[in-house]
């Protein structure tokens, strides 16, 4: 039996409710596929910030640097400014551990109500590859004449050749591993005149290395329109930190799966642990009621298994999710059911 | 009879095909409402750039500074880099003439096929107010070690108190003039740590001046999801230059009207001419065939009339569009019909 040491960060709100279900299902699939986990639970959260003034201890990342993975619930709470909680926990982990790929699947499942008319399961099945370490999210910039009528605020977007190339490389390789071999780049080089034409140049240059991949690119504005009108066009979509962020909420919305969408923050070189978290947040409006949908967390667990080298175990989880949804198994309120969080977690564990 | 002097810039591609239809309908409504136009046509375009190296003459804006309005088709052509054509024509006009509000309606019309299931005309009817002069679109920034593996590229987003407050003021006033009195702000203050928290502060401060307006705000990622899942939630939505750009393509996509969406680039103080243009671009794939949908251009003409102080004439155009769509009048291919551009323009002129 191989044993993996996983840092578990339930975080805030419903994160604390869905993470145990993720663990339940991972334990179930582990028992079947002979995989063991050592869960190293951390209380890093807004609660901790309120008690100590820090989202996580100063040496937090040192302590998990050698772990095999990080299993995160959600971060953020109304009483803490969002930029404080996120830049105090989520974003430092993504950066310190060079998780420069944020991978997010978009799929229309059987048994899930999509807001779109006339789309059938199978029509929509693509991957979003989001740059996760630089770009529009940066500490650089600041505020001049703060609080006065003359205030000027600057935010610097920083793109590097190394940073862009490595995420594009990942996206091209991923596209190459898929039957359709089609890669779409999100840009805005007509409006944003320094970074986006640069992004396009990097994309065009790398495309030459992959003559078998069909490439195209769209400005982010019309690309969001295509996600709604032609979601069947896409196979792999690559975008900057901000554009990828937007597209990876929009994609799941289009497929009616925002509550179940997973994500993987990957360090493809495996020098550092990667992090797995649902796309949804801490959902203060329903936190504490035990009604949150655990599927995003559970599916994130499948992505973790995949990354750890257990694709069959990962597929077993996804297959259980497919069956639960298609066969009208228990589902939470956001998906039109009445089941609670634990019931859905147990049902999925049972299906495995 | 009041006569308005209007600069006409057909621009590129289908811009040259739809602008004449816009003029046809404006002439028809002018005849009825006793409004006359003096059309001052300009050849500013990518063609001009290829011939002269400039999208427009050096003194171009001087020559139209005193005009009553600008009626623009579309700018951009595949043989000219987008950032060259747009920053050589469209964006300088928006800025030089302080058109700091970009106003774009989102409406689900009777007779239009929306990609959404279960939405009826009347369910979706809101306005997007986009900041149009600063923010993410800026000349500031540049490229270090250009073309080398060590390249670093910076794009500076610049927000000013004056720039943010004036567009928010417009949005609050607009919300106040509407029955629902509801204003939504697009933000991303959890990821973008200098400019977006500042934007939120300006929004919160101004909300105090409008106690009768219901306000809310969403991060741009989940806001795009809400556009798809809950488009009925919105009344007026205000966003930065980039966020407004994205939302104002997504909104029309959700209502199936991307080919007919109009926009107004407004200088609310009327110190300078405002500019009216469809949301769609020059569409090189169908240009020259006479099959482009002219409704976006024609509706933009209605927004121009509104701005010039002729709300009834404006309403007559919108009413004609409503009738044409609801009564299955001639429509272009993008809307499932077989009519050409001129036929739709003539049908609308006849309806007036
Ligand atoms: C062409 C482009 C620069 C422009 C913009 O982003 O402003 C367009 O998308 C628009 O929305 O008017
Ligand atoms: C919470 C926020 C900072 C984060 C992001 O924008 O990266 C979230 O939206 C996500 O997509 O993981």
Account of the 3D structure:
Two copies of one chain form a homodimer. Helix content of chain A is 40%, strand content 22%. The first copy, chain A, folds into two domains: 1-124 and 260-352, Isopropylmalate Dehydrogenase, CATH 3.40.718; 133-254, Rossmann fold, CATH 3.40.50. Chain A is globular and about 55 Å long. Chain A has helices at residues 15-33, 46-52, 60-64, 82-96, 161-176, 195-207, 220-229, 241-254, 295-308, 311-326, 341-351; strands spanning 2-11, 35-41, 69-74, 101-107, 125-131, 141-144, 152-160, 182-187, 214-219, 236-239, 262-266, 274-278. The first copy, chain A, is α/β, with parallel strands linked by helices and 352 residues long. In chain A, strands 2-1-3-12-11-4-5-10-8-9 form a ten-stranded mixed β-sheet, with helices on both faces. Chain A is built from eleven helices and twelve strands. The model of chain A has no long low-confidence stretch (mean pLDDT 96). At the A-B interface, helix 4, strand 6, strand 7, helix 6 and helix 7 of A face helix 4, strand 6, strand 7, helix 6 and helix 7 of B. The complex binds 3-isopropylmalic acid (IPM) (2 copies). One 3-isopropylmalic acid (IPM) sits between chains A (190-191, 221) and B (86, 90, 245). Chains A, B: Its cofactor is Mg(2+); Mn(2+); K(+). Chains A, B: Belongs to the isocitrate and isopropylmalate dehydrogenases family. Chains A, B: Residues 5-348 form the Isopropylmalate dehydrogenase-like domain. Chains A, B: Keywords: Manganese, Metal-binding, NAD, Oxidoreductase.
């Amino acid at each position: 039996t191989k044993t993996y040491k996983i840092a578990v960060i339930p975080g805030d709100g419903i994160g604390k409710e869905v993470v145990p279900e993720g663990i339940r299902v991972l334990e179930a699939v582990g028992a079947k596929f002979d995989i063991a986990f050592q869960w190293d639970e951390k209380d890093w959260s807004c609660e901790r910030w309120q008690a100590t003034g820090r989202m996580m201890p100063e040496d937090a990342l040192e302590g998990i640097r050698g772990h095999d993975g990080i299993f995160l619930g959600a971060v953020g709470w109304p009483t803490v400014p969002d930029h404080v909680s996120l830049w105090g926990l989520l974003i430092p982990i993504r950066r310190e551990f060079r998780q420069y790929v944020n991978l997010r699947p978009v799929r229309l499942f059987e048994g899930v109500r999509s807001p779109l008319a006339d789309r059938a399961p199978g029509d929509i099945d693509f991957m979003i590859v989001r740059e996760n370490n630089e770009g529009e999210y940066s500490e650089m910039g600041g505020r001049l004449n703060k609080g006065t009528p003359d205030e000027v605020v600057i935010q610097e977007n920083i793109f590097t050749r190394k940073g862009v190339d490595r995420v594009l490389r990942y996206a091209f390789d991923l596209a190459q591993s898929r039957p359709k071999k089609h890669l779409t780049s999100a840009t805005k080089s007509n409006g944003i005149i320094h970074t986006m034409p640069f992004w396009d140049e990097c994309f065009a240059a790398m495309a030459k290395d992959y003559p078998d991949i069909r490439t195209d690119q769209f400005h982010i504005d019309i690309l969001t329109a295509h996600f709604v009108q032609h979601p069947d066009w896409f196979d792999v979509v690559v975008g900057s930190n901000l554009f990828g962020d937007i597209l990876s909420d929009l994609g799941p919305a289009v497929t009616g799966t925002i509550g179940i969408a997973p994500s993987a923050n990957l360090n493809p070189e495996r020098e550092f642990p990667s992090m797995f978290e649902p796309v949804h947040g801490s959902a203060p409006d329903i936190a504490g009621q035990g009604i949150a949908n655990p599927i995003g967390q559970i599916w994130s667990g499948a992505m973790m298994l995949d990354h750890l080298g257990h694709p069959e175990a990962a597929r077993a989880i996804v297959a259980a999710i497919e069956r639960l949804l298609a066969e009208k198994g228990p589902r939470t309120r956001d998906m039109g059911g009445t089941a609670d969080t634990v019931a859905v977690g147990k049902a999925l564990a049972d299906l495995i």
